[in-house]
Fold this protein.
Amino acid sequence: MPCVRLDLATARAMPWKNGGGETLELAIAPPGAGLEDFQWRISSARVAMAGPFSAFVGIDRSLALLSGAGLRLQGGDGRIENLHAGAAVASFAGEEAISATLSDGPVTDLNLMTRRGAWRHRLAPLSLHGRQEVENDAELMLLWCQNSAGIDCQLPDGERHVLKGGQGLLLERMPGALVLQAAQPALLYLGWLQHETGGS
């Protein structure tokens, strides 16, 4: 694949696993996989009301807030995390009982999920203004643009892309430095996905 462009405008709409809403599926492996047998999945959802998250047994999950006033997550053990756009990412086991409460109106989130024992991942925000180099040594790397009129991305092979809000890139086996430039303050989310040793 070496580079695939992702866009919310062309993503596949799917119902939540628990039927409580709708998700835009940006990428999934293997292609055509369902919610019970995927190896990894990248998606975005609009959360319009409080309620429980869908259960994904055997899945590690990271969630970032793209827009909205805030989202409060409470785990079955009483642990609470408050998510805000551009801030820290929440990571948890997919089978954990998580309930969500809205701070003030609907929010949109970004989800990165990998099958435990086969893949591992990390998701982190990056504030960008001007030029910055980002090293990539992961098997798969996600770049997701949250709120910019234009981010210029030069890939390690010299290929260039311009990303606007709601667009991203998925890079496969493309080690080296990515050169990112933004004339105005911008926010991205970077994800790294790697096979586990002995994983399939």
